[in-house]
Amino acid sequence: MKTTERFIQEYITREGTNPFREWFDSLKDVRTRAKMDVRIGRKMMATVNYQEGLLKRLQDPEYASEYLNEALKEGSQEMFMLALRDVAKAKGISQVAKETNLNRETMYRMLSEKGNPNLSSLNKLLNTLGLTLSIGRKESAA
């Protein structure tokens, strides 16, 4: 999947409010928010403020799980690896590397767009992030 960088500029009113942020934060459904984060964060280069908000949301294991599942549904290994890197960044790459007994360079390489971790490394990483890998039945296209 070839990515094209696009930039989002957040609209701030004269009163200093951010209508998009207020609307996004009001969404109650975790899956909807995660789905939007995957699409906004990967289709376009998000602003620093957006990235900070994403990393804060990803500290919640439930949210991180939904975010990774939505990235998997996109059908691209690159998308999933970048989403996994976001989740690791939310906890702190150095901390994650330490807890998985992998060095930072290996961690960054593993979590790159072209990363291809073996199953044991992926399981170590997910375990450190408070997540697990599971398999489900494919949804039928009825």
Weakly predicted, low-confidence segments: none
Largest sheet: none
Which class best fits the helix and strand makeup? mainly alpha
The succession of helices and strands, N to C, reads: HHHHHHHH
In percent, how much strand structure appears in the residues?
A: under 5%
Distance between the termini: 27 Å
Coarse shape: globular
Please give the count of helices.
Answer: 8
- Tally of individual domains: 1
Rg over alpha carbons: 16 Å
The average pLDDT value, as a whole number, equals 82
Strands, total number: 0
Helix content: 55-70%
Overview features:
about 140 residues; mainly alpha; 8 helices; about 60% helix; about 0% strand; globular
Topology diagram in text:
Blueprint: H1 19-26, H2 30-43, H3 48-57, H4 61-73, H5 77-91, H6 93-100, H7 104-110, H8 119-128
Helix pairs in contact: 2-4, 3-5, 4-5, 6-7, 6-8
Q: Would you give an account of this structure?
A:
This protein has 142 residues and is mainly α. It has one domain. The protein is built from eight helices and no strands. α4 (61-73) runs antiparallel to α5 and α6 (93-100) packs across α8. The two termini are 27 Å apart.
Summarize the structure.
This protein has one domain. It is globular. The protein has helices at residues 19-26, 30-43, 48-57, 61-73, 77-91, 93-100, 104-110, 119-128.
